[in-house]
Amino acid sequence: MSEIKLSAEARTDFGKGAARRTRRAGLIPAVLYGHGEAPLHVSLPGHLTMLALKRTNALFSIDFDGKAHLAIAKDIQRDPVKDVIEHIDLLIVAKGEKVSVEVPVKIVGEAFPGTIHFVEMQRIAVEADATNLPSAIEVSIEGLEAGTQIRVADLVLPEGTTLAESAEGIVVTIAVPQSSAADEAADAEVAAVQAAASAAAAEAAPAV
């Protein structure tokens, strides 16, 4: 996994007012912690950081005070209305160190014709090398028939990655679509309206 390099600035003012000023300046408040070191309160470049966070489990190299710190994002606080990043907690890591993260499930392939699939678990907790974290776990549903279930134990994990949760969890279920009574009533209503419209049009048409 390639490192995303960011330069950080020291942050000495704290509180909501200071955080707002930091964000208005195009920066994101953050804290670096871990490995027994005192927390480092920093500000990161806003646009570059937001772009980097679009990558799942991105590995950062934070340049601060003349030293590069390898880190991953452990908590991202967002404004629920504006959907802007308010604060980031970054965990300092080292090469060869194992960390626990959640990885999104990526469905590949097409199930048997006439079936649909339900993703019961969107993310899987795993443990992997901090500098080689997987961005997704692919789950193939190619040709699977209705009634098939894929469990956590069935997943093919990237090399060097191990499960960090129960192997019995159901990840994907293949089923046949079931129409509800409400769907059937709606279809019947649409058909009735269309039939009435056709009949009205036929009556209004001039005789030949």
UniProtKB/TrEMBL annotation:
Family under the similarity heading: Belongs to the bacterial ribosomal protein bL25 family. CTC subfamily.
Annotated ranges, domain Large ribosomal subunit protein bL25 beta:
98-178
List, in alphabetical order, the Gene Ontology terms for molecular function in this entry: 5S rRNA binding; structural constituent of ribosome
What organism does the UniProt record list as the source? Pengzhenrongella frigida
Q: Which Pfam families match?
A: Ribosomal_L25p (PF01386), Ribosomal_TL5_C (PF14693)
Q: Which NCBIfam families does the entry mention?
A: bL25_bact_ctc, PRK05618.2-1
Q: Which UniProt keywords apply?
A: Ribonucleoprotein, Ribosomal protein, RNA-binding, rRNA-binding
Q: Which domain of life is it from?
A: Bacteria
Please give the function described in this protein's UniProt entry: This is one of the proteins that binds to the 5S RNA in the ribosome where it forms part of the central protuberance.
State the oligomer form and interacting partners.
Answer: Part of the 50S ribosomal subunit; part of the 5S rRNA/L5/L18/L25 subcomplex. Contacts the 5S rRNA. Binds to the 5S rRNA independently of L5 and L18.
Task: Give a GO cellular-component term.
Answer: cytosolic large ribosomal subunit
UniProt protein name: Large ribosomal subunit protein bL25
Kindly state a single biological-process term from the GO annotations of this entry.
Answer: translation
Record's CDD domains?
Answer: Ribosomal_L25_TL5_CTC
- Ranges of residues in domain Large ribosomal subunit protein bL25 L25: 6-90
